[in-house]
Design brief:
The complex is a heterodimer of chains A (about 475) and B (about 280). Chain A is mainly α. Helix content of chain A is about 75%, strand content about 0%. Chain A has 3 domains: about 5-50; about 70-170 and about 195-235, no CATH class; about 235-479, MetI-like (MetI-like fold, Orthogonal Bundle), CATH 1.10.3720. Chain A contains 19 helices and 4 strands. Chain B is mainly α and about 280 residues long. Chain B starts with 7 loop residues before the first helix and ends in a 7-residue tail after the last helix. Classes of the chains: A mainly alpha (about 475), B mainly alpha (about 280).
Chain lengths: ~475, ~280
């Protein structure tokens, strides 16, 4: 029996703990800032200079539009507007299923707004490229790339427009009550986040994009504007292509294996057996192990020669001597095994959470209807886990694209067994590994490295957008 | 239902799963106790543990200043956890409890940063840090400031706050509470689960930072622990696996403890588990 007294005591001790945490965190933050206060001076100077250079930036952009060749701007405006018009019409068609009082020709009004947003939005990324892909001198490959970039850029304004359209379609939305008053306060509250995002995410991202358009003039250190040349030469580079396929290969298997194994283990761990909590803890802890430590552990397991445990066992049992890390076919699989092990804990954690959220009455009803265990799993459990699977899919793909660097760097510090012309490709030379290695290599052209970064960025960005599209739809049609 | 007897099959499966997952780590623990010669012995010494664990750990702390590296990493991780939580909660408060011009545009600007992973901008970012002259004098600013804000944190708190009944804020306003009082007196006590979940992801992701401190080219004493682990591979002519595994074990203990302590919060704090 729990007495009122002990409840009150535990409540009080909880309050005490919370207060202690709060005081401790505040004290830590204050000491941290005080110890580093000198460093904020240069930050402050940089911000001031950035704000002061804003008028010059606006003026530069204005002069650019005055002086740039009109046909190229007109062409890019037209492409953006056409894309915006078509895409918005398609989106409006999807929305027309929802009943809402709307003006008669609302679709055409929306499409007009879409054309405007697309045309203007297209300019956002076109200015840094100086509309070079629409120049008469541009090759057809550059022109096609330019169309893609314009469409992408148009989306920067089109997506907010579509959000507005969707909100207008949901007429039942009541306005939330209980808003605080204050004109400046919300901006003040947002200012730290906005400041850090602008300075440490937006600014470097823009820089990467700008650098990716430049090429070194050998042997001079200067760089010149090169339009899309870096991207085109990446597409033709065998080493890059090999890195690309190595990344895809490793990603596909890491994601498939880690998700399915984690699901299996989570189904076991979600059973109501004695000691379930202990089992759960023993299943999820690898999440706390870093990629570097994972790589180091697997290095000692897979190391070649008689002293590696795996090869020693294989030698004793079958007389095999496997070249795990120097064989072109096997090295990616060592990486895959390490990555899967590293990811399993995280995946199991979320799958257990998902399984606990599945209403048991649904499963019981199905079992009364005579549905077998496997049928129940595939028809009820698995579809209901879809949001979790999607979330884990994204995180696992992100891990396989970026996080895997620590694993690759410890297991195959040279990028794995060499192959290809001149032995320049590596079997585990995945894109992020190649990107960092090129960056550390001071002789490598910066523009090419930046173009690689932008390519990687686009690949994962596409996935994130797909995720949001899915979540969006779910929210829309469930309400 | 008649299924009350112990389910041995499930137990067997779970024990097997736990063992398979633990095997690499158990092996690492064993190797961490070996001397250089023992680590290269044939057949491998699998049991019992040898005596060299203390020695290995000692030489990590003496020769490769692991104590300092762990201290650095801990400070950096804690600073990011606290700073990010604070900023994200403030942003969440602004997005949920205020209406102001440009709200959706600002939200979209935050949303867009989901597409900009720090991993891909390390080159210009390290240029920016060099411009700020932080590498030599303020390495901890260089290691923390780029991670002080993120879309994930803002989303987590925004979603959590929007799920809290509006009666709360109305009652607080009737009592004359301002937004900051409301945040600390009402929202904060209701947010510990989310704060815990957020703290775990941030702490662990900071503890695992590896590429960024390498890009910064910090002096060895200012480095983070993962770089220390990596460097213990190349410290000699022949990799001392005993030392290396000891490094891995030592580097994994703090995040493991942190994670196991807050495990419960981690699951219950995520919006994914509650959005029904």
């Amino acid at each position: 029996m729990v007495s009122v007294d002990s409840l009150a005591r535990s409540y009080r001790s909880r309050k005490l703990l919370e207060r202690l945490l709060l005081v401790g965190a505040t004290a830590f933050l204050l000491i941290f800032v005080a110890a580093q206060r000198g460093g904020f001076r240069s930050l402050w100077r940089l911000l001031r200079d950035a704000v002061l250079s804003l008028p010059a930036f606006v003026q530069d952009t204005a002069t650019y539009f005055m002086e740039a060749p009109t046909e190229q701007i007109a062409l890019s405006l037209g492409v953006g507007a056409a894309f915006g018009l078509l895409a918005t019409l398609l989106y409006a068609r999807r929305l027309s299923a929802t009943p809402a009082p709307r003006p008669a020709h609302w679709k055409w009004i929306a499409a007009g707004a879409g054309a405007l947003a697309g045309g203007l939005g297209g300019q956002i990324l076109m200015v840094p490229t100086r509309h070079c892909t629409y120049a008469p001198a541009a090759s057809s490959a550059e022109f096609r790339l330019g169309l893609f970039v314009t469409a992408l850029s148009a989306l920067l304004l089109l997506v907010p427009l579509w959000t507005l359209l969707r909100q207008a379609a949901q007429q039942t939305r009541e306005r939330p009550t209980g808003m605080f008053k204050g004109r400046a306060l919300p901006y003040l509250l947002l200012s730290p986040t906005m400041l850090f995002l602008a300075l440490f995410l937006y600014y470097p991202t823009v820089q990467v994009m700008l650098v990716s358009l430049k090429q070194r003039i050998f042997p001079l250190p200067q760089e010149r504007f090169a339009c899309m040349q870096n991207y085109l030469s990446l597409a033709e580079d065998t080493v890059y292509r090999n890195s690309f396929s190595a990344t895809l290969y490793i990603t596909v298997f890491v994601v498939l294996i880690s998700l399915s194994v984690a699901l299996g283990m989570a189904v076991l761990a979600a059973q109501k057996v004695r000691g379930a909590a202990v089992y759960r803890t023993l299943l999820v802890w690898p999440y706390a192990i870093s990629p570097v430590v994972t790589g180091v552990i697997f290095l000692s397991i897979f190391r070649e020669g008689g002293t590696g445990i795996l090869n020693w066992a294989l030698d004793g049992l079958f007389g095999l001597e496997v070249r795990w890390l120097t064989d072109r076919q096997l090295a990616p699989w060592v990486i895959i095994a390490s990555a899967v092990w590293n990811l399993l804990g995280f995946n199991i954690l979320f799958y257990i959470a998902g399984l606990q959220n599945i209403p048991t009455d649904l499963l019981e009803a199905a079992s009364l209807d005579g549905a077998g265990r496997f049928r129940r799993f595939w028809r009820i459990t698995f579809p209901l886990l879809a949001p979790y699977t999607l979330f884990l899919l994204i995180t696992n793909v992100t891990y396989s694209f970026y996080g895997i660097y620590g694993v690759v760097d410890t297991l195959t510090p040279e990028g794995g067994p060499r192959f290809g012309p001149g032995g320049e490709s590596g079997a585990t030379n995945v894109l992020i590994f190649k990107l960092y290695r090129d960056a550390f290599n001071t002789g490598a052209p910066a523009g090419l490295g930046a173009a690689q970064a932008v390519m990687l960025f686009l690949m994962v960005a596409a996935l994130v957008v797909v995720q949001f599209g899915y979540l969006d739809r779910r929210v829309t049609y469930e309400g | 239902m008649a299924r009350r007897r112990p389910r041995y099959g499930v137990h067997l499966g779970l024990i097997l799963a736990c063992l398979v997952l633990a095997a690499p780590a158990l092996y690492a623990l064993q190797v961490a106790t070996l001397t250089l010669e023992e680590a290269f012995a044939v057949p491998p010494k699998l049991f019992p543990p040898s005596t060299d664990l203390g020695n290995n750990v000692h030489s990590l702390f003496e020769g490769q200043h692991f104590g300092r590296l762990i201290g650095n990493t801990f400070t950096v991780a804690l600073a990011v956890v606290i700073g990010k939580t604070l900023f994200s909660m403030l942003a969440g408060l602004a997005f949920v409890y205020f209406s102001f011009p440009g709200k959706w545009a600002l939200f979209f600007i935050v949303l867009l940063t989901l597409l900009m992973p720090t991993e891909l901008i390390l080159v210009p970012l390290s240029g920016l840090i060099a411009e700020l002259q932080w590498v030599k004098e303020y390495p901890q600013l260089a290691l923390t400031m780029p991670f002080m804000a993120s879309a994930v944190g803002v989303f987590l708190f925004r979603q959590h706050f929007s799920n809290i009944p509006r009666e709360m804020v109305e009652a607080a306003q009737l009592d004359g509470a301002g937004p900051l009082v409301f945040l600390f007196a009402v929202l904060l006590p209701m947010s510990w689960n989310v704060i815990g979940a957020h703290a775990i992801i941030q702490f662990i992701s900071m503890w695992h930072q590896y590429a960024w401190p390498i890009f910064l080219q910090l002096s060895p004493r200012d480095q983070l622990i993962q770089v220390g682990v990596r460097n213990s591979v190349i410290s000699g002519t022949q990799t001392d696996f005993g030392l290396l595994m000891a490094a891995g074990v030592v580097a994994s203990i703090p995040p493991l403890v942190f994670f196991l302590l807050l495990q419960r919060q981690f699951v219950s704090g995520f919006a994914l588990t509650r959005d029904k």
